[in-house]
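BACKBONE GEOMETRY TOKENS
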Amino acid sequence: MPRTRGVSPRVNELGAATSPYLRQHADNPVHWRQWTPAALAEAAERDLPILLSVGYAACHWCHVMAHESFADDEVASAMNAGFVCIKVDREERPDLDAVYMNATVAMTGQGGWPMTCFLTPDGRPFFCGTYYPKAGLLQLLEAVEETWRNRRAEVERASDEIATELRSMSSGLPGGGPALDPDLCDSAVASVVGDEDSVNGGFGSAPKFPPSALLEALLRSHERTGAQQPLATVERTCTAMARGGIYDQLAGGFARYSVDEAWVVPHFEKMLYDNALLLRAYGHWARRTVNPLALRVTRETARFIVDALSAGGMFTSSLDADTDGVEGLTYAWTPAQLADALGEDDGNWAATTFVVTPGGTFENGTSVLQLPVDADDGDRSERVRARLARVRAQRPQPGRDDKVITSWNGLAITALAEASHVLGEPELLDAATACARAIVDLHVVDGRLRRASLGGVVGGSAATLEDHGALATALLTLHQITTDQRWLDTACLLLDIALDHFADPARAGRWFDTADDAEALVVRPADPIDGATPSGAALIAEALQLAAHLAPSPHADRYQAAAVAALNAATPILARAPRSGGHWLAVAEAAVRGPIQIAVACDPGDSELLAAARMLAPGGAVVVGGAVDSSELLAGRDRIGGRDAAYVCRGRVCDLPVTTPGELATALGAAV
């Protein structure tokens, strides 16, 4: 028999949330709860279904649904009467997002945000969808409430079937993949290159997302094989994005995706993770080719991260797609606005240079700035860009999600540290180091990592596998550059926790996205496929592979075995769907080369040879410098005849040491 419904307390509980997205809904008349055991217990006590709404702060349609429905008294009344309403920030709780997005895709064939799911009090989904306008949502609320009251057996049967399907979906990849070897990498790269949009750059049609991890993998493939096709694919894609509207031509930084296939019109939200991943790829392209466009975009993207997203030494999550409820309001221009800002002569020049047309390339006769070719007049170009940036800064600005996500900060630390060498800008390394220090000090609580913080207050959500992998790689990157033992020790702590709590003890190489002592959900997520960010399993594989050559024994042996097992388990992705495994391919490319290790016996603060090693090293290589015996890779390795010496190894096989940058270049080029 259904229990008697309790009375809903007339309160919205989001005001104390550590997520800005949840706080945006604190004034809704909906009696929102956060996802907690108490909220689920309330649903059970009142015998009501859960209405779960999942979104994020920079999501345009999340804002639309909030204004249309969640701020509306009629909708709120229906929601409060028939449901326990729970609001989730997908960036703060990626585990919940993954579970219910899989359910949404299974039921509807597609997913996205805002995500709207109806659950039993114990969390089993029985109906899922995405955005609903007010009228459609009211109809849906009435239908679901009627079904819950009068056809409960159907609900229970459907929720059981969906839960069973979710468990099947999370069972992982089938075994029996091909061996991890150069041939597999070559085949995966050929498949990726064959899918390229050779006209516009990138992959697929509209909407088009930056293929960050694939770009890094293709660069590593080029370095390994010397093949020009992967490099050409990178150059076409990176050039098209950098010259399109998806890139902010005034302040640097990339929008999340382009609504068209030619990168002209962005969806204007700017995410930390996109810019961190793209900074790493553009920095690698710049290091390998010294392309002026690559260098400029690397510098500007790094500055965007540091200048626009910094808070308390760490980096915040995103800039909103909307300004004052209007998408792109801050960024779009008309020819008349250019003339007002610059004067008629410079305004006409800017309209031609940045493709601002009378009809507009965006909405309502406005255009998003593009830069098809670099202007010949460099002084004029810089002056115009600076003036437009100042004028734009006086416009209303998009909101910023000040939430700090562990994994995204890890990606930013790695990218900034690598970019500091490419650009010769040590202040970027300083920013990366300050971020690492702040993250470790705030987000490690009682020896365990947390997912997020806001305003210097750490949240209660446990870190996921991707948090451990991205942060460990970041700390290992810093350790290689700074020789600071703290970063190596903390990275090893994170990897030991990951191995103890996230690795599947029943299946070698399989990883869960949540810890074994985390909150139990309807299914424990374990998705090895890359999405907008690399999968947690691919990130942890990268960190393990680095640590295997930096950590002392017996840790190194444990990390090496786990890295090999993870990569072997992922070979079905590389064989069957390499575009869905860009980060796996990048890690695999490094693995089949050894990975390469370069140990330079030197004074790390003043060594031309060490600087050359960091510029010449292929992606995924391990590079350390210091005195003899100062690290595992420098054990018994000293300078030679008073000169700095570089020791190059591939896996467990080492070359004779070299003492000049030219000799080092030859030694590294021998593998191509």
User: Anything to note?
Assistant: The CA atoms of residues 107 and 128 lie 7 Å apart.
